[in-house]
Design a protein that fits this description.
Elements (H helix, E strand, L loop, with lengths): L2 E5 L2 E3 L5 E8 L7 E7 L6 E6 L6 E2 L7 E6 L4 E6 L8 E11 L2 E4 L7 E5 L2
Parallel strand pairs: 2-11
Antiparallel strand pairs: 1-3, 3-8, 4-5, 4-9, 5-6, 7-8, 9-10, 9-11
Length: 121
Amino acid sequence: QAQLVESGGGLVQPGGSLRLSCAVSGIIFSTNTMGWYRQVPEKQRELVASITSGGPPNYADSVKGRFTISRDNAKNTVYLQMNSLKPEDTAVYYCNVLTSYGSGYAVLVSWGQGTQVTVSS
């Protein structure tokens, strides 16, 4: 059974950086599109970045130029480097395996526990 384990969150001051990791098991990682989502209470989960097996990454406008998604197929891990963090980036961050669905994506794996990112002075 596929499993996702996110890590790397924490408390950081505005303008700071964090690097999130997501270890993936139970699937053929290298051929799958991966994505990072975030969720704040009482709001829908938001896709912030995605990366295919070989194409360019995509980003939500809210994080473009500040966040970078990358993957290490040898380690079955996807990363999210977050720079110039803002208080509005505060959320629980999740990764998932994506498949094309309509004009967007659907997730293929049960959600992991996520990792909390708090941006505050």
